[in-house]
Inverse folding.
């Protein structure tokens, strides 16, 4: 039996035990079962699959990850947590340890009436009415094996519901911490964010791992922006050196909504993110920004897909990669303009900076257009630090290492400037300037 | 301050400078003129440490030190400043941020305390006047979208902030209209002092109506073929470079 098949069987038998244990509404159980049968049929992807051509998941399959245990892990005080991951925690936050909601570590302030910010587990236990129309309705578990696996094991994560017209000014943080803790464990964070019409919200999803923990985070986040809603979303991936992260973010955008997505990838052994947005109503504005920094042997893959389904949609996509050491980056961006989407205005750009001769990037920008009345452009570049610019800085007295740092920062700043959450922007500023060369693996922490 | 002895350099195997000798003392202004391709910009880049030029013979002594052994940043910290002919655009990095990093690197090297943001701003405000620089330009990315004149002003502004001992101006005048030229030249004159030396590289005599040199050298085919006082510049302007070329050819013929 091949490694992938044996590993698949392992996940299937884990599911049987999970199903015996996990109480959930009948409609959820039925989704789980449908998802596991899709996973059984699909199996894990191999590099023969076009969408996985440059990312080999074998390193994940080699390790027999077990579902994260439910018991508490000793990290129960805010002080202990802050010490462990060296950050100060934002005041409005949901905290998850190895995929499970921690009431002790989370903190909630008074939010307007009818705003729901809770764990998905709690929302499922109460079978809240906002769940069923949305949960597992957008992220495609029928063709994507990792989404299927996550959906089969869906149990906990963040649930955010912003009712019609509510304006939430302070960002809501969702902090996912993986401790590893000696056992190789897999967690399946499952997040659902629904911003009803005319509402506005800023969300930060941060994934943080400890330095040496071996673990696998398989996440799915579904985001719904209702009519005329404004959603500003940030995802930060700062997994530990031996952490694996495979996740899908699926946004469903209704008429005249405005969605801004920022994917910042800073750490992890193998990180794959699928960021998908469907412009399902007329006049949607969608921004997908991304910045990935990788060094040493890291592998970072960012896959994006934007579906323009209705007229007058606008999408702006800018992904920038900075690769050092022997790191390998992948960018794949597809803009799919349906026949039903005239007057689409789409622009996609991918720019990559290679800081060492052993670093590499595979970039694959794609346009598929089935309507003639559209404006679409795309482009990608791969380059090194400009020798002219380096000399210019050095000729002013700035040392070589600092000059490299400043130019790397300059490259990233276009993305960083677009970040509206000040605490993230400021930390990134410092992080990008100071992390260079082998220092990419340094001890600076971001959230 | 600076002594160049028999300097030979080549770029990818092609010899550009073929034996330069030049002495520059504190307080002096030296103009280096010459036709296109004579090696003027190469000399400027070699003095500031550009690595793509290979020095094949000769030496350069700066304040008693072997200049050619120093990195570009060491030279800058020891007081050498190059005003670039083509200042580089760096999107994403503001002039103020960059210049503060540069100034503090130099101050640290000189054993001075690093300036904080407030003190730096005070200094910048004062030096902006030298070249009538606007604050708005400083907050923008370095030279991005600047006009030719704004880029050259930015170079002289940086020189004012960094306060070098030896300034090398590489065709700072080229491409400037007369108003911009006047502003840049006035800036340079303001910065002239008994402790500072300047090497002004130019293709045109026009700049030297505003910046009066103590010595004028003509560079041709990688050698200084003629040196004189400021009148030499006027003669070049009136007669062009052809007579220099003819003199060189004649001398070569006589030598053969």
């Amino acid at each position: 039996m091949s490694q992938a098949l044996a590993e698949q069987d392992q996940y299937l038998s884990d599911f049987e035990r999970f199903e015996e244990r996990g109480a959930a509404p009948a409609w959820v159980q039925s989704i789980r079962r449908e998802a596991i049968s899709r996973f059984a049929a699909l199996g894990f992807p191999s590099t023969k699959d076009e969408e996985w051509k440059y990312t080999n998941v074998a390193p994940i399959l080699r390790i027999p990850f077990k579902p994260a245990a439910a018991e508490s892990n000793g990290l129960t005080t805010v002080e202990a947590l802050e010490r462990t991951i060296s950050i100060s925690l934002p005041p409005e936050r949901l905290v998850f340890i190895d995929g499970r909601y921690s009431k002790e570590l989370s903190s909630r302030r008074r939010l307007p009436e009818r705003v729901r910010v809770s764990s998905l587990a709690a929302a499922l236990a109460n079978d809240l009415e906002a769940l069923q129309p949305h949960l597992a309705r957008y992220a495609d578990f029928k063709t994507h094996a990792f989404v299927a696996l996550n959906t089969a094991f869906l149990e906990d994560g963040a649930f955010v519901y912003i009712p019609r017209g509510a304006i939430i000014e302070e960002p809501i943080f969702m902090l996912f911490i993986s401790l590893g803790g000696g056992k190789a464990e897999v967690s399946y964070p499952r997040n659902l964010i629904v911003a009803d019409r005319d509402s506005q919200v800023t969300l930060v999803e941060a994934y943080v791992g400890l330095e040496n923990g071996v673990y696998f985070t398989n996440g799915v986040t579904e985001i719904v922006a209702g009519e005329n809603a404004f959603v500003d979303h940030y995802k930060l991936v700062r997994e530990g050196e031996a952490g694996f992260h495979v996740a899908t973010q699926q946004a469903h955008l209704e008429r005249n909504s405005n969605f801004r997505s920022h994917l910042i990838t800073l750490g992890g052994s193998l990180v794959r993110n699928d960021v998908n947005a469907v412009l399902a109503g007329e006049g949607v504005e969608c921004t997908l920004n991304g910045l990935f920094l990788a060094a040493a042997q890291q592998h970072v893959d960012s896959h994006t897909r934007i579906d323009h389904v209705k007229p007058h949609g606008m999408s702006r996509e800018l992904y920038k990669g900075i690769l050092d050491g022997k790191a390998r980056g992948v960018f794949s961006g597809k803009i799919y303009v349906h026949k039903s989407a005239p007057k689409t205005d789409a622009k996609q750009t991918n720019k990559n900076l290679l800081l060492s001769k052993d670093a590499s990037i595979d970039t694959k920008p794609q346009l598929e257009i089935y309507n003639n009345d559209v404006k679409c452009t795309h482009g990608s570049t791969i380059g090194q630090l400009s020798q002219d610019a380096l000399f210019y800085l050095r000729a002013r007295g700035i040392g070589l290492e600092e000059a490299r740092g400043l130019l790397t920062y300059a490259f990233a700043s276009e993305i960083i400037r677009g970040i509206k959450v000040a605490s993230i922007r400021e930390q990134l500023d410092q992080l990008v300037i100071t992390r260079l060369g082998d220092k990419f693996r340094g001890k600076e922490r971001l959230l | 301050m600076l002594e160049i002895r028999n300097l030979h350099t080549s770029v990818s195997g092609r010899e550009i400078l073929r034996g330069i000798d030049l002495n520059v003392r504190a307080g002096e202004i030296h103009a280096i003129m010459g036709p296109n391709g004579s090696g003027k910009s190469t000399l400027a880049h070699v003095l500031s440490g550009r690595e793509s030029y290979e020095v094949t013979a000769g030496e350069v002594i700066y304040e008693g030190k072997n200049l050619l052994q120093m990195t570009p940043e060491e030279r800058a910290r020891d007081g050498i400043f190059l005003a670039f002919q083509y200042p580089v655009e760096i999107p994403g990095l503001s002039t103020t941020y960059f210049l503060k990093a540069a100034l503090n690197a130099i101050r640290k090297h000189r054993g001075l305390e690093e300036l904080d943001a407030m003190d730096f701003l005070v200094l910048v405000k004062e030096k902006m006047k030298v070249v009538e620089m606007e604050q708005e330009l400083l907050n923008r990315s370095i030279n991005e979208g600047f006009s030719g004149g704004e880029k050259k002003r930015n170079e002289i502004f940086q020189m004012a902030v960094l306060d070098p001992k030896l300034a090398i101006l590489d065709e700072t005048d080229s491409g400037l209209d007369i108003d911009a030229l006047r502003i840049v030249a006035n800036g340079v004159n303001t910065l002239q002092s008994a402790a500072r030396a300047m090497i002004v590289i130019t293709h045109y005599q026009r700049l030297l109506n505003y910046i009066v040199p103590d010595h004028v050298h003509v560079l041709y085919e990688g050698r200084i073929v003629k040196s004189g006082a400021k009148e030499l510049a006027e003669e070049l302007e009136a007669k062009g470079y052809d007579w220099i070329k003819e003199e060189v050819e004649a001398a070569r013929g006589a030598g053969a």
Observations:
- The longest helix of chain B spans residues 95-109.
- The interface with chain A takes residues 48-52, 71-73, 75-77, 81-82, 84, 87-88, 90-93, 97-99, 101-103, 105-106, 109, 141, 158, 162 of chain B (CB under 8 Å).
- The mean pLDDT of chain B is 91.
